[in-house]
Amino acid sequence: MRIGILTGGGDCPGLNAVIRSVVRTAANHYGSEVIGFRDGWRGLLEDRTTPLDIGAVDGLLTRGGTTLGSARVAPGLLRDGLDRMRAVLADHDVDVLVPIGGEGTLTAAHMLSEAGVPVVGVPKTIDNDIDCTDLTFGFDTAVSIATEMIDRLHTTAESHQRVLLVEVMGRHAGWIALHAGLAAGAHLTLVPEEPFDVEEVCRLVTARFERGDSHVIGVVAEGATPKPGTMALRDGGVDEYGHRRFTGVAQQLGFELERRTGKEVRTTVLGHVQRGGTPTSFDRVLATRFGLHATIAAHEGRYGQMVALRGTDIELVPLGDAVARLKTVTPSRLAERRAFTG
Ligand code: F6P
User: Fold this and answer.
1) Residues 6+ apart with CB under 8 A from 310
2) Under CATH, which architecture does the 2-138+279-322 domain have?
3) Residue 99 neighbours by CB under 8 Å, 6+ apart
4) How many whole angstroms separate alpha carbon 75 and alpha carbon 94?
5) What number does CATH give the domain 140-276?
6) What is the pLDDT of residues 90-106, one digit of tens each?
7) Does the annotation mark 235 as catalytic?
8) Which value, in Å, is the radius of gyration of the alpha carbons in the chain?
9) Are 163 and 205 spatial neighbours (Cβ–Cβ below 8 Å)?
10) What percent of the chain has pLDDT over 70?
11) How far apart are CA 336 and CA 146, in angstroms?
12) Residue 259 Cα, ligand 1 centroid: separation in angstroms?
């Protein structure tokens, strides 16, 4: 058998661990070959490939990023390029394609699968917003990095009796903010799933200083939004997927807080540091298991599926179910946060 593999969307710690796992499982269990397409769907559209044998994946387990390269490709280009992608796969004798990616990549994988191309999807994203899987690899690493950074901000904030706002990634889901906020003992965590009232945030800040607390740490998800009428947020328009662009909510909230409470506020935007570097051991294991089970599914002809973590097991779920909606923070998880607010 010949497996094609590509990594699409934003990079994520653990992508290389999946590539290594697919190549090793294919070669060692089945005597099969793997070919990589460079820079996500773009490499498939432009016929840019790289051979992947055991030697090529040596040392990849611990390395961040993706050795295949990645890119975001507009959905329209993919729809128009369907026949072209099918032809390139046929030219390379690819029996099954294993795309590794987030919402955009898996939606494209589903489209290909519906068009009759044999596909087994692997979910990845630091945002943890893919439905039908308990977790995605990359999330644990991002939360660990954000937690360490927030731990460090506590000491500088208390030395100056300041409010420190930390903006974390997560797109339209608040998972990174929620988990890093809990892990690092934040006093306030703002997520997209629950629009915030800036006056309430001001009251929390004032109350903490009035009762003698030394500082305030607020974790702000990049997708957090104010309740209508409580604070104007710059409008960044929408991206090629029709998603709202983020425009630095933490910094804008910081200015408002300083103006309304008179306290000193500083803002830290963690940005791409959350996606960089080596994956945690948890993510290495999850990525390795995803690669193993995707390769088994490919050899068993279980196409149109995505590997998923359900409890402690890796299972297969229909790609169509996985991309039907984004997995956002549930009301019960939001409720847990309340005891640690203030
Ligand atoms: O989806 C992963 C992610 O890091 C999001 O958290 C973030 O909004 C986005 O990608 C950033 O994308 P880019 O790397 O294209 O700026």
Assistant:
1) 133, 134
2) 3-Layer(aba) Sandwich (3.40)
3) 5, 6, 7, 8, 41, 105, 106, 108, 109, 119, 121, 122
4) 23
5) 3.40.50.460
6) 999 999 999 999 999 99
7) no
8) 22
9) yes
10) 100
11) 20
12) 30
The neighbouring-strand residues paired with 96 are: 3
* pTM strictly above 0.95: yes
CB proximity list for 273: less than 8 A, separation 6 or greater: 145, 149
Contact (CB, 8 A) for 274 and 145 = yes
Q: Where are the domains of the chain?
A: 2-138+279-322, 140-276
**Of 38, 32, 40, which is closest to residue 50 (Cα–Cα)?**
38
Q: Going by CA atoms, what residue is nearest to atom 10 of ligand 1?
A: 10
| Tens digit of each residue's pLDDT (9 = 90 or more) over 249-283 | 999 999 999 999 999 999 999 999 999 999 999 99
Q: Which amino acid is at 80?
A: D
Sign of CA dihedral 271, 276, 279, 283: positive
Which residue has the least CA distance to atom 11 on ligand 1?
A: 10
Which residue shows structure tokens 């992947």? Answer: 52
Q: Is 313 annotated as a binding residue?
A: no
Residues, the chain? 342
d(CA 129, CA 107): 13
* Backbone conformation region of residue 113, classed left if phi is above 0, alpha if psi is from -120 to 50, else beta: alpha
Q: What ipTM was assigned to the predicted interfaces of this complex?
A: 0.98
Distance 258 CA to ligand 1 centre (A): 28
From 12, 72, 124, 126, mutation site for ligand 1 pocket: most ligand atoms within 8 A of C-beta: 126
Same fold? 2-138+279-322, 140-276: yes
